[in-house]
Specification:
Layout (H helix, E strand, L loop, with lengths): L2 H22 L10 H13 L3 H4 L5 H8 L3 H17 L3 H9 L1 H21 L1 H30 L4 H29 L4 H6 L2 H11 L14 E4 L5 H30 L4 H26 L6 H20 L5 H25 L4 H19 L1 H13 L5 H19 L8 E4 L1
Antiparallel strand pairs: 1-2
């Protein structure tokens, strides 16, 4: 069977599934009203899913010195938000079923803004409680968005995932690069540099507010999906999500500290992180589009993982005069790895109901697994007194992500059953 025939058959299967879903819910999937407004809202929401994470790394040494944090507490501070991404992800479908996905996104955006204020204004206790709230908020919203994309932009799912990921990377880059200058501008007050990022969260909430009053298709959580935990493909998608995310959060949490340890200033290290994340804008948009042009996504996964590992090892070991080249290579790789992870959730699902549940599994379990990476880096650094041995962590995580990705990248669907609640 040639590629075009296979794609036609897959499209027919999706159309059959969509028609069946329409019959089950009595045509409750109207075309979304004002799709441009939904698209704008999705972009603004996505912009807020990384600043709370990437803004801390450039200021970690200043925050630790100001509050007297031990090395163990500083390591926990980089791990806690990532752990919360996974631990709170299972709440997303429960909340969406009770209140509706759009209302949940609005409420959680406001909760995210609250967490950012707490961690920047109330000492050590507020720092950790606010980080917990911010991580939980990002975890819940992150689970809901792929299902919304699958539901309301089904025919453009790959491209929309790329746009959403590009906005996410832009938010991370802005926070990584601007947080230290903001702190310096306001009299070297790290609290203002961290607290500033509540502003875009409130702005996103204002632009998302109209979605709570629009008609959308029936939310994916209205259907019970069985069999995900017993499906090998679902676990491969989950492991790929978790292992590549672990590398990403090591970069967010520790790359500036690694570069400072190699001789850069805090501002320079933050700019390198920002530049690397900014490069992700290109690959996060291009990788899903290119990956969906082939027969499957395995080659794309191998390429982006090789770029990521090359960039990581370059930043860790190569001479500093070539640092920006390695940072760009790292950005190209990580933009592709993350956007492909989100794309796999959509492509391996037959419909929006399955996509939402696979998203919950991949992000809930995956981000819990991902939190071990930043923790391991902190422990290895404390144990060895340097950064050289961290390369072994990069190698193990990268190899594991590649193996899982080769399984997840195959052109097939997770095998589950779906029934109305």
């Amino acid at each position: 069977m040639n590629l075009e025939t296979r794609r036609t058959n897959e499209l027919e299967e999706l159309l059959i599934d969509a028609e069946a879903d329409d019959d089950q819910v009595q045509h409750s999937h109207p075309v979304v009203q004002r799709p441009w407004l939904l698209l704008l809202g999705l972009i603004l929401v996505a912009l807020n899913l990384r600043p709370a994470l990437s803004s801390m790394a450039p200021l970690l040494s200043d925050v630790s010195a100001s509050l007297g944090l031990s090395a163990a507490k500083a390591g926990l501070l980089t791990t806690l938000p990532v752990l919360c991404l996974g631990l709170f992800a299972p709440l997303a479908p429960i909340l969406a079923r009770r209140f509706g996905a759009e209302r949940v996104v609005l409420g959680i955006l406001l909760m995210l803004a609250t967490g950012i204020v707490l961690r920047s204004s109330f000492g050590e206790t507020g720092l950790f409680i606010g980080s917990l709230i911010a991580g939980a908020s990002i975890g819940i919203i992150g689970v809901l968005l792929p299902g919304i994309v699958k539901r309301d932009f089904a025919r453009q799912a790959g491209a929309m995932t790329g746009v959403y990921t590009m906005a996410l990377c832009l938010g991370a880059a802005l926070a990584a690069g601007a947080t230290v200058p903001l702190s310096h501008y306001f009299g070297d007050r790290w609290s203002i540099g961290l607290g500033f990022w509540m502003v875009p969260a409130v702005v996103a909430a204002l632009f998302w507010l109209p979605q709570t009053g629009q008609k959308h298709g029936a939310h994916q959580a209205a259907y019970r999906v069985r069999g995900l935990l017993a499906d090998p493909l679902a676990w491969q998608v989950t492991l790929y999500m978790g292992l590549q995310s672990s590398l990403a959060y090591i970069v967010f949490g520790w790359l500036p500290s690694i570069l400072i340890g190699r001789g850069l200033s805090a501002t320079e290290a933050g700019l390198v992180l920002s530049g690397s994340v900014l490069v992700q804008l290109a690959s996060s948009l291009a990788a899903p589009w290119l990956a969906t042009r082939g027969k499957d996504q395995r080659l794309a996964i191998v390429v982006v993982m090789l770029l990521t590992l090359g960039g990581l090892f370059g930043c860790l070991y190569a001479p500093l005069d070539g640092l920006w080249g390695w940072a760009i290579l790292l950005g190209l790789g990580q933009g592709g790895t993350f956007s492909l992870a989100l794309t796999l959730i959509v492509l391996r699902s037959r419909d929006a109901h399955v996509a939402a549940n696979l998203s919950g599994m991949a992000q809930g379990i995956g981000y819990t697994l991902a939190s071990l990476g930043p923790l391991a880096v902190g422990l290895v650094h404390d144990w060895t007194g340097g950064w050289t041995a961290v390369g072994w962590i990069f190698a193990v995580l990268g190899l594991g992500a590649t193996i899982a990705g080769l399984g997840a990248g195959r052109a097939r669907y997770v095998q589950v059953s779906t029934e109305a609640r």
